[in-house]
From TrEMBL:
<dbReference type="InterPro" id="IPR011332">
    <property type="entry name" value="Ribosomal_zn-bd"/>
</dbReference>
<keyword id="KW-0687">Ribonucleoprotein</keyword>
<dbReference type="InterPro" id="IPR018264">
    <property type="entry name" value="Ribosomal_bL33_CS"/>
</dbReference>
<dbReference type="GO" id="GO:0005737">
    <property type="term" value="C:cytoplasm"/>
</dbReference>
<dbReference type="InterPro" id="IPR001705">
    <property type="entry name" value="Ribosomal_bL33"/>
</dbReference>
<dbReference type="Pfam" id="PF00471">
    <property type="entry name" value="Ribosomal_L33"/>
</dbReference>
<dbReference type="InterPro" id="IPR038584">
    <property type="entry name" value="Ribosomal_bL33_sf"/>
</dbReference>
<dbReference type="GO" id="GO:0006412">
    <property type="term" value="P:translation"/>
</dbReference>
<dbReference type="GO" id="GO:1990904">
    <property type="term" value="C:ribonucleoprotein complex"/>
</dbReference>
<keyword id="KW-0689">Ribosomal protein</keyword>
<protein>
    <recommendedName>
        <fullName>Large ribosomal subunit protein bL33</fullName>
    </recommendedName>
</protein>
<comment type="similarity">
    <text>Belongs to the bacterial ribosomal protein bL33 family.</text>
</comment>
<dbReference type="GO" id="GO:0005840">
    <property type="term" value="C:ribosome"/>
</dbReference>
<dbReference type="GO" id="GO:0003735">
    <property type="term" value="F:structural constituent of ribosome"/>
</dbReference>
Length: 49
């Protein structure tokens, strides 16, 4: 039931993190504030396809 998703930074567009999510409880795309090592501060990371 859980699927592997990739999180990309909204500022530099780099794919920094991978995580899993449950598609039945979260059908839309994830958005999490995480640390981006290239921007060197916390930014919004969105799920990419």
């Amino acid at each position: 039931m859980r699927t592997l998703v990739t999180l990309a930074c909204t500022e530099c567009k780099r794919r920094n993190y991978t995580t899993t999510k449950n598609k039945s409880t979260m059908p839309d795309r994830m958005e999490i504030k995480k640390y981006c090592p290239w921007c060197r501060h916390h930014t919004l990371h969105k799920e990419t396809r």
